[in-house]
Amino acid sequence: MTDEKIAANEMINWIITLKDDPKMIGTIGYYHIKPEHYRAEIGYMLLPNFQGRGYVTEAIAEVVKYGFKRMKLHSIEAVVDPIIHYFSLINRLHIANHKSCKKSKSIS
Known about the structure:
The protein is of the alpha/beta class. It contains three helices and six strands.
């Protein structure tokens, strides 16, 4: 299913690694891409041992830049796991709209 969504331009994923180590520490990507509306949702996950060190902040900055410049998006919404409390990060990055994600279901 993921490959089909990528082929249909409905989602795109990247892995998050450390600069000096190719081991995956997380993922980040765009989901529910709606090119006709110039919008997408950004979502991310990071292994617990790497949280709170600025890696997600750095990854989001690059992916948001890619979304606005390369994908020509006008709107990016965040999909946030309420258990991890990334809401302060989303607010700090000035992403005004966000949704909570619980057990792979988006809720408003």
